[in-house]
């Protein structure tokens, strides 16, 4: 592709010049750098509480050809479910398939997209029980990845510091380290381990929608939440929950669970160290959460 990243993103989606002949010739490093820069600007605007700027940048990212290209690569080449089709049976496993997919989607308006129901499949858990997964069609997965790109940096600026599941550059090792550091003072403490039963299946749609506020693509997120699923050729509505298997589902789960620390009484104090804002929990209660698993801790007096 000869068109530069800068010029590519300025070209109208309806213009034939935005089409490409071979997606494998894309300069991915430049594409990734452009998207990361936009995401950093969203994060910075949110940290400055410039909500109008946040929405402006989110719209820019969602219209970006670079975000579309990167999302197609993520969904069809990197993700584990790249070989699993949705209800339409479509997969994009070759460069030609991916090029055609891009050329079809680049001239469409993401906000006018109507999602298809997810395909319900079941996988066996370690305890022998079956876990239901909802597999969206490829096109929905690509759009979900774009929306995640726009929404995630805004919420990364808001999330609690001891939430580690489904977040960029965080892992179970960080959660383990956080728990260790909480216990290091050697004072007698109570530890409670908790799990949100059926977390993804029971998320409240109205609450998630309320939390999204004025997010530019909120209507599309609502469509995904209400899209339903097909199980054994039977359509089922979805009045609550978000399907495990959807790219945007983990982020929506974290948004729904945001505020847990405040609810149980955790209090943070802000201060500056060498001009950099720091946050510290000086209270007796702390919570370490990894996705829908959490380990609250409370210091207690022991005789």
Defining traits:
41% helix, alpha+beta
Question: Your description of this structure?
Answer:
By secondary structure, this protein is an alpha+beta fold. It has eleven helices and ten strands. Strands 2-1-5-6 form a four-stranded mixed sheet, with no helix packed on it. Strands 3, 4, 9 and 10 form a four-stranded antiparallel sheet that branches. Strand 7 and strand 8 form a beta hairpin. The longest helix is centred in the N-terminal third of the chain and has 20 residues, at 28-47. It is globular, with a radius of gyration of 21 Å. Mean pLDDT is 89; it is low at 299-303.
Helix and strand topology:
Layout: H1 5-10, H2 28-47, H3 51-62, H4 65-78, H5 95-105, E1 118-124, E2 130-135, H6 138-156, H7 172-183, E3 189-191, E4 194-195, H8 205-212, H9 218-225, E5 229-231, E6 234-236, H10 249-257, H11 260-264, E7 268-273, E8 276-281, E9 285-290, E10 293-299
Parallel strand pairs: 1-5
Antiparallel strand pairs: 1-2, 3-10, 4-10, 5-6, 7-8, 9-10
Helix pairs in contact: 2-3, 2-4, 2-6, 3-6, 4-5, 4-6, 8-10
Number of strands: 10
Tell me the overall shape: globular
Largest beta sheet: what is the strand line-up? 2-1-5-6
Percent in strands: 15-25%
The run of helices and strands is HHHHHEEHHEEHHEEHHEEEE
Largest sheet: 4 strands, mixed
The gist of it:
The protein is of the alpha+beta class and 303 residues long.
